[in-house]
## 1
Amino acid sequence: EKGTLKGHSAAVNSVAFSPDGKYVASGSGSTFTSDNSVRIWEVATGQELCSLRGHSNAVSSVAWNHDGSLLASGSYDNTV
């Protein structure tokens, strides 16, 4: 094990590495919790860089675009 990223208070449903491998995005949540967040982590340090909130239900997917300048998230609240 290289390391564990801790911060979500609900199940992690999706993870995606940025194209350059420097960052990882994680999406979490469930119908039983309020942690329907996307978090961005620095791979080298394991530091959480930011927590993005806006979905009202679990985040089901996260994906970076081809150059890592954009991150999209999909949720069971039927929004992207």
## 2
Amino acid sequence: KATVSVLYWVWYRKAKTMLTERKRAALHNDILDYLKAVGYSESVRVFEEEMHTRALEQQGPSALERKYANVLRTAKLLSAAETLNKELEAQINEMQDPTSVKIAVAQRDYIPNKLLHTLEGHGFNKEITCIVFHPTQPAMYSSAEDGKIKIWDYETGQGMGSLIGHEGAVKCLAIDVAGARLASCSDDTDIRVFDTATESCIRRLQGHEHTVSHVEWVMPDCRFLASASRDGTIRMWDVQNSCVEKVFRNPGQEWIRSVKIIGKHVIGCGDDHLVKKWTFDGRNERIIGGHDHVIECLAAANQAACEVLKKVEDAKGKDEADDEMDNQDLSSVAAEYVASGGRDKIITIWNITNNTEVLKLVGHKDWVRGLSFHVNGKFLLSCSDDGLVKVWSLSDQRCLRTITVQEMSFVSCIGYHPAGRFLVSGSSDNKIKVYKCE
């Protein structure tokens, strides 16, 4: 028995290393036939026992176990494929219809979390003045004091070209709802409108007498463009015909730094420390409220933010709207709130329908330079000369997150992705930073 076991072990070791499973089985059968032929019945019995024992030791999972394992592996692959399919569908939908993506993302509390890129391309130490996203393509546009407009792929961080035309610092950019036209304004007093497909200037609007600091498309058809200027006026332009449709004047001729179109009102702010509104016919100028210093920026609340702010007002027991409301239902107003930020380091949110202050947000240590409402309406994002970007909870009226963007320079502007996926900041040292919102 010992001899047969040793013989089998030697053959098995060689066969295991040199032969395939089928050849090993054939060899075993040949050994058995030989032992039977020479009459070694005891050796046959021992060899068969050894073969059976080793077969049990090497036996793998049963057929049922293998089938169950295959089912689990298949289910896992199907789940991964479904997840990938949903991600690809979301990306396709975003490119085709960003509005539907906005609605889907509106329930998510995505806020800036991860720095993806730091971009440099404008003139050395030239302040970035404005950044806007294309509504359907992975592109964004930046302007700076070097007089250039740069085009970037915000996903890869690669530069994609420049728009040339202004002879002074470019102060502000605005892209229309379709992403077909980009408006820009400058220290050279001109407003230019570029075709985003051909990257060529298709309109040059002239009429302001000093720096044009802000431009804003009038939704929803974007037929008109509003501009604010250091000459103390807001002008409403008929872009197709390159002419001024209406002029709104600041009585003291102070610099109007920012303009927003909310419902049927034109909202402006600037060096007179006041937030004002005009009706579209240019009459009924009203003061909504004010700051203790120059007001640098405005942000119009989206519908989701209006709902949150209405609840904040209701919780505080605000008075009913005044006679100017003409007893209209507040819920029917598409956008009735505006946020303002100024050199007094304070952010204030106003109800423009009844001209009342809703809340103040205090936390920045220097001028507030840019504001943007989160797509879900729950948050307000701000940037400041203190080098910080802050995310504020509107319902709690507190800062949820502070991002240190720059330690040695100012954060001069922010731009927010239309579906809430990215936030970009521009600073006084010509750097642009792209953050992913998670």
## 3
Amino acid sequence: MSSPIETLYVNNLPDKLDKKELKRALYYLFSQYGAIVDIVAMKTPRTRGQAFIAFRQVAVAEAALKDLQGVQFYGKSLRLAFAKSKSESIAKLDGTFRKKSAREKQQAALQKDKDFLMKIKGPKRPAGEVAAVKKVKEESP
């Protein structure tokens, strides 16, 4: 699990709700724990069913994570974790926000694609190992 920060990553969200209704429902559910700075929920094929909830305080995020883990939300069991990094909203509030250059954005997107492919295909094998595997498969009866 990531170390505690103000931002929670939520997944296993219903994808039948439109974006506006999903954000509203998440706000009502999570705002009972404290002030919410931002809710980011996207509906692209790759990001549907996921959201980020940014709170003002780490303690509030910890309490929400503890209490809402596995709670039924529109018929689905919520899965929560601390986000891997601070949200832009929190960075802007605490003065640490730095706008990424186009090159940094491109590199981040390429790394994300590589990570995604690694999940699907597994690690790349050296050429000699691939040839050996093919030879073994061909020789098998």
## 4
Amino acid sequence: MAEECEGTGSNDGFPGPGLDMTHGFVHHIRKNQIKRDDYDKEVRHAKQNQRPPRRTPAPTRPRKPDMNRYMPPTNEPATGPAKKIDHNSEPATALDELVLFKLEYEDEDGDISKLLVLKDDDPHEIAAEFAQECGIHDSLVDALVYRIEQEMKKRVK
């Protein structure tokens, strides 16, 4: 009876065929497992050696150091009823109270002319001087006078 149980086949007394391992299939499975383990070790090692994560989040948009930032205009003094702004002079506090607004005009060449309008200025005189200085056509002077009057009315208290 002991001889009958030695086989891996049925109980009829003949030994079973067993597994034929000559094809090498199990060998390939073991080889792939070893490769996978080696890869996992490399990934773990690389993860340990990498920099710690940032504590602050990265900016959402790239920084552009070459771009000019907006600088608000400063109140600079002007002398007389309406004069061009002198960028080298220091602002005067008494004149700041008299200034209503700054009139700016950009001509076709891209040159910008600036003019401070004071509380007691006459819109007709300002428009005539500014038009002559900037080379504005005479037909547009009336529109400039109207616009200056409207802006002065808004700002006078």
